[in-house]
Amino acid sequence: MVVYLYNTLTRLKEPFAPADPSHVGMYTCGPTVYNYQHIGNMRTYLFEDVLKRVLIYNGYQVTHVLNITDVGHLTSDADEGEDKMAVGAQRTGKSPAEIAHYYTEVFLRDFDRLNCLRPTVLCPATEHIPEMIALVQCLVDQGVAYEIADGIYFDVAQFPAYGALSRLSLAGQEAGARVEVNPEKHGPFDFALWRKADPHHLQQWPSPWGPGYPGWHIECSAMSMKYLGPTFDIHCGGIDHIPVHHENEIAQAEACTHQPFVRTWLHGEFLRMVQPITRQRGATTETVEEEVKMSKSLGGFITLEDVVQAGYPPLVYRYFCLGAHYRAALTFYQDLSTLDQARNSLHSIYDFVRRAAEGRSAADSGPDGWLPPFTAQFHEAINDDLNMPRALAAVWELIKEANRRDAAAAALPLLLDWDRVLGLDLAQAATREETLAPALQGLIDARQAARQAKDWARADALRAELLAAGIEIEDTPAGARWKRI
Questions:
Q1: d(CA 243, CA 188)
Q2: In principle, which of 204, 215, 223, 288 could form an S-S bond with 192, CB 3.0–4.6 Å?
Q3: Which has the closest alpha carbon to 97: 20, 191, 202, 177?
């Protein structure tokens, strides 16, 4: 089947056609490792993981390059403020290298816990300074970059196509609307390629323009082209990267190579964190939702570890993110209650998979001609711009029909195949015995004791209590079995 992807550059959903019919080159903007990644950041990596899985599922080989920004990213995504690594070093009292190593390891741990497939190439910026200097020199030689007191800048006026990705016209834009005004710059939107460092700056390298460090934007252009060539198939990131970072990447790359930089751009929407606020209007009390900024710089953010400590397995968050299209904003409540339904749904899928693996269905050996329509539904969903809500709907419709037919085991191979895209670890669930919290297990044991004592009223009351907690009990000749609902 043809994979259709929404290309930010054209604003169209297009049939995907890589330059090499069997191979895809894919670059995804990685973390700036001066602090923990919050769950909003991780939503972007999850969408990119689904993209890669869909491509692999469709038979492509994928070379996935993900960068680690360990130098050069200022506190603004434009050219304002201090280097984030310097800020992190000041906050922790450690060297930039030490904090970069620590937060990279934390990021990769969370990446693995969310069952994201590791990239083919993981490239820290500090290991690619020569490639960045070479790209800056190319731009200087082409006459589209110039030197001033604090560094080397890209002359946006020399690149007429600037703004094509973001559909932004710089004509009439206020000089300080996006970046800090620098009177030496040729134009207000010119951006730093290389910054000259004072002797006390923590990270600096020799260059033709004196000791300094790279601008943030030059890193992704240089590293992506090193591993994927001057033109490659897919570049991904969050929507916040469109108007500045990715626009600058295109300008730098194409002004040097005079070739198209990226064929297809994909961008994921934000995780919108909200909290319920109760307001009194006269005699009426109303509850409204107030958006809360999830910001590392302000200290108010939720990490995957916070989610785990609150009792939600990491793949619950993955399932939660699959429930919304990657180009749609996703609402998340600050108290984490948004994850309750996702947890129950995922556990229900796990319960079905375990039952199917146990071969408990009497009709499992029957004909499976009813399965192909579900296969077609799933394939159509994932290949329609990664429509994972529709893919999950196919999962639930398959489970419902399998239960109706008493044919759980017949559906299991299909679910395990689909999990190559879903990434919910269903094969492990099929062999893993799930445990309950001690309090709930205690209720099950107490109910079993009540049944043995023929105290049916007590047993029924405990069954109701378990049901209210989302646990359904099935009495079988082998004893009581439970499942989440």
A1: 15
A2: 215
A3: 202
